[in-house]
Design a protein that fits this description.
The structure is a homodimer of 299-residue chains.
Chain A: E1 3-6, E2 10-16, E3 19-26, H1 28-36, E4 42-48, H2 54-62, E5 70-72, E6 78-84, E7 91-97, H3 110-113, E8 117-120, H4 125-134, E9 140-143, H5 147-152, H6 154-163, E10 166-170, H7 171-178, H8 183-193, E11 197-201, E12 207-211, E13 214-218, H9 232-247, H10 252-269, H11 283-297
Parallel strand pairs in A: 1-4, 1-8, 2-6, 4-5, 8-9, 9-10, 10-11
Antiparallel strand pairs in A: 2-3, 6-7, 11-12, 12-13
Helix pairs in contact in A: 1-9, 4-6, 7-8, 9-10, 10-11
């Protein structure tokens, strides 16, 4: 069961209390693809510029990811530069240069169209719609978004929501989208807009899953040290979708296990800069931490 | 197994998006005592002024609480007035008048001294120490505190921590006390100061329990409507201590169930102003929500 991931490919410059990193592999499509690669075959679709290091593509390929969908365009790669505060809960974006990402228009190959599982990472909702229209008949489509699109392209975003099975948003986005002050009402409101499943990401506070069967609350894994929170939400979504694809199921039990798998890979992601934690992360470590989640929440 | 609770008795004026309430029953000792009353016999120790309505004492007594330890002093009751923001995550304190609480000096009766279970709500650590010294040989003593005491009476607070079994603090207090930026390290640091059990309250994000066996994460119960968050943390502590007292046990399993019982009563507390939700709350509703917590976290 293959997973299609459409989103950004980026070079990140991150400054955090633990240090800094330059020209690091980033972008939602890369974070989600690497996280999902522990569960299923992943086909990311995105665009890189002339300055994108071959070593980053080699790393993705070594994870078993099909890198043929990462187009190489003539121009600079999307660059993001951010600085985290001491608490890591807040960050300042110092620079966003879209580069070749500005004119990104995802065109799917036959193999990509045929994917049963689709994750639309945070890109312009018009592009998300275009991807949905190119797909054949996927079993489960999930989408992410951001405050910018809620503000500026609300109509297209609502159309995307009508067409997907699952929305994965953070708490602020969910409240903003529904103009609610309560997360439960916000999630119910989003379900009424289309997706039968809504996931609210709350960073270090975990995630809430809302589906036809009720609510599931998963904590974030408590860590003694967090180095770089960048991409944790995308890793969560990648692990979530990868877990569903591996199980080949979307019942309530599969959705809950997928949320915990998403939380598990996200917890590894933040232990090092960029995607570095996944350079040597073994599948057995994911299984062990999934089991630790059971112990963490058992009563 | 009786529970001693020492802390404030107050008249609250609360303004929130859902409305407002005046001269309402408040104070940490009252919130904790009412929450604990669903599990065990409670002996609150505190001081009320001449203006404290008899109806509030009658309500406590009707809950089976021993109100003989609530001294009636000549002067005004401690008054707190606060206003919540739209999101309910933030509030402004508009007024704090200590009244008779300023000269509160807890003196325990024989029955109070003999209690096996002790909760020292947020009062001056010097008073908390005085209570510990008056008790006979309690099985389990828990304490709360606040940023003011961490700032101004640190030495006495550290002495309290050396003498108790459990610290119940919110996330900001735990970080401030240990000068840490990470909650896991903060909790470990507090355990090194004395208490074998540390609970970090995170409001709508739930609670974390740290003990010799590891970490337990409990979510807050997701509610469609929150009316008044005042006293939720004190209800949590009261439910936690009451549950331990009822089980007569402090092993890892009992501590985890106690955290969920604390979260359960706290979730009822915020559904109405002041302690009003407990006027008609039945024990069966607590059992049902405890079961719902299992469903909420099962995977």
């Amino acid at each position: 069961m293959s997973l299609l991931v459409v989103g950004s490919v980026a070079l990140d410059h991150v400054e955090a209390p633990a240090g800094s990193i330059e020209d690091a592999l980033g972008g939602a499509a890369c974070y989600a693809a690497v996280a999902a690669s522990y569960f299923t075959r992943v086909h990311p679709v995105g665009v890189a510029g002339h300055d994108f290091p071959q070593a980053h593509l080699d790393f993705l390929a070594a994870k078993g990811i099909d890198v043929s969908g990462i187009e190489r365009a003539d121009g600079p790669t999307f660059r993001w530069r951010g600085r985290y505060h001491e608490s890591l809960n807040r960050r300042d974006t110092l620079l966003t240069e879209l580069g070749v990402f500005e004119h990104f228009e995802p065109k799917l190959s036959d193999a990509q169209r045929a994917c049963d599982w689709v994750f639309l990472a945070n890109i312009h909702p018009g592009l998300q719609l275009g991807v949905v229209e190119q797909t054949a008949s996927p079993r489960f489509v999930a989408m992410d978004s951001m405050n910018l699109w809620i503000d500026t392209t609300r109509a297209e975003l609502l159309e995307v929501l009508r067409r997907v099975d699952c929305a994965v948003l953070n708490d602020e986005e969910a409240l903003q989208l529904t103009e609610e002050s309560n997360l439960v009402r916000a999630a119910e409101g989003i379900r009424e807009l289309g997706p039968s499943t809504v996931i609210i990401k709350r960073g270090e506070h975990g995630a809430l899953l809302f589906d036809a069967e009720g609510i599931f609350a998963a904590p974030a894994f408590p860590l003694r040290e967090v180095v770089d929170p960048t991409g944790a939400g995308d890793c969560f979504a990648g692990g979530f979708m990868g877990s569903l694809a591996r199980e080949g199921a979307t019942d309530a039990g599969a959705l809950r296990r997928a949320v915990v798998h998403g939380s598990t890979v996200a917890s590894f992601c933040v232990e090092r800069f960029s995607l570095d934690r996944f350079r040597d992360l073994e599948a057995a470590e994911i299984d062990a931490r999934f089991a630790a989640f059971r112990e963490l929440t058992r009563f």
